[in-house]
Amino acid sequence: MDCSCVSDLLLTPSMPALWTPGFAFPDWAYKPESSPGSRQIQLWHFILELLQKEEYQNVIAWQGDYGEFVIKDPDEVARLWGIRKCKPHMNYDKLSRALRYYYNKRILHKTKGKRFTYKFNFSKVVLVNYPLLDMANSSFLLAQSPFSGAHNPECGSLTPEALQTLFSPPRLGDPGNRSPLFERQVQNSEAEKLRMETAFPFLGSGVSGYSKPPSLLAPYSRNLPFTDYPWSFNPYLSGAFPLAGSKLPGSLYPPHFYPNPLAQMPTPVSILPGEANLERSALTPSTPARVCLPPSLGTLPLRGELHPLPGRTERQAMGETPVGGAKEDLASDSELEITDVSECSSENDFSPDSVEERPGLLQHTMRKYKALANKPKEATAGQLS
DNA sequence: AACGGAAGTC
DNA sequence: GACTTCCGTT
């Protein structure tokens, strides 16, 4: 009420918080779990939001390589952040302190020598989008990273047990209904949190990380569109957003960074599980679930077989249409500076999610992944392409 | 500008 | 836990 700060950019009624057209983050990343008791947006989310809003290109923008961005107007970013957090006295000094705390979490790191330039640990973003994928490739991915395998204890943590944990079915008490994309879990279980933290340590007490994305994750296209991605996989293209009909400005997707998904999205590989395996009712009926899979998953069991992280992650990877329309999304884009206060304490509760139990599949998938992970990259790529 | 410790807030 | 605030240091 008295806090005339919050932008409704991400709190449009018809749309859950943190609508990010180019990125898809599992709901657990949206807060309740990552910060028990708090529902506020995290700074890195906010940064990502700004980064993909065309209107803030002069404030903050992707620049340089791979995940690197420049805060062109520190004061403005701080101001926006302050508005978002109802911290009128926010400034860049404080904001940057918060950013520095991300260094240890491996979410960000500083691009030395470049003023106001930071870099996302991009692999983590990919991880968030395609957790299973990343896990599947973890061995050789990490092997290629500057902080590879032997030096990376995390690499060894991706054990079948970890997978098991990640895939473990929900507790019996967990609600069994699926919720539409963007609805977030409210009654998310600790198990879920544990699963996530196992897979995405950076969100917790993370350890590993690579400053450079694994080569398999492909360099950004400098000139070519989608085809430049070795496996037609745009890590920033979640596919979880209204594609057809959406009118996201192409400029939101700098070609050198991530091609315009709307214009260049190739026919994606569908990992749509069989109808019997997926409760399609939760999906927008007219919107085919789709996802661009990297070749590494090309030979993995698809349709009805691959059923990674049943629930949130899967649906995102499948390109579920978010609640609300693109039009509203766009309309809200320019309202970051909204001064509507009511949002300050508004709640954005979402329905609980569910996880399906597929023990057989789990075993199968785990074996497959393990096999894949143990193969040389080339061989794997070949086999998968 | 950038860093990071320390204490405080929610 | 994720900042916010303050501040001394590089």
As a whole number of angstroms, the C-alpha radius of gyration is 20 Å
**Low-pLDDT segments:** 6-38, 129-385
In total, the number of strands is 4
- Measured between the Cα atoms of the first and last residue, the distance is 56 Å
Helix/strand-derived category reads mainly alpha
Protein name: ETS domain-containing transcription factor ERF-like
Keywords: DNA-binding, Nucleus, Transcription, Transcription regulation
InterPro entries: Ets_dom, ETS_fam, WH-like_DNA-bd_sf, WH_DNA-bd_sf
GO cellular component, one term: nucleus
Features:
385 residues, mainly alpha, four-stranded antiparallel sheet, globular, DNA-binding, ETS domain-containing transcription factor ERF-like, transcription regulation, DNA-binding transcription factor activity, RNA polymerase II-specific, Ets_dom, sequence-specific DNA binding
SSE map:
Blueprint: H1 43-51, E1 60-62, E2 68-71, H2 74-85, H3 92-105, E3 108-110, E4 117-120, H4 122-129, H5 131-144, H6 160-167, H7 190-199, H8 261-264, H9 312-317, H10 326-333, H11 359-374, H12 377-384
Antiparallel strand pairs: 1-2, 2-4, 3-4
Helix pairs in contact: 2-3, 4-5, 5-11, 6-7
The protein binds a DNA duplex (10 and 10 nucleotides) through residues 34-38, 40, 42-43, 85, 87, 89-90, 92-98, 100-101, 103, 110, 112, 115-116, 204.
Tell me what the structure shows.
- The protein has 385 residues and is mainly alpha-helical.
- It has a domain at 38-135: Orthogonal Bundle (Arc Repressor Mutant, subunit A).
- The chain has 12 helices and 4 strands, in the order αββααββααααααααα.
- The chain has helices at residues 43-51, 74-85, 92-105, 122-129, 131-144, 160-167, 190-199, 261-264, 312-317, 326-333, 359-374, 377-384, and strands at 60-62, 68-71, 108-110, 117-120.
- A 4-stranded antiparallel β-sheet has the order 1-2-4-3.
- A hairpin with a 6-residue loop joins β3 (108-110) and β4.
- α4 (122-129) packs antiparallel against α5 (131-144).
- It is globular.
- The termini are far apart.
- The protein binds a DNA duplex (10 and 10 nucleotides) through α3.
- Residues 302-361 are annotated as: Disordered.
- Keywords: DNA-binding, Nucleus, Transcription, Transcription regulation.
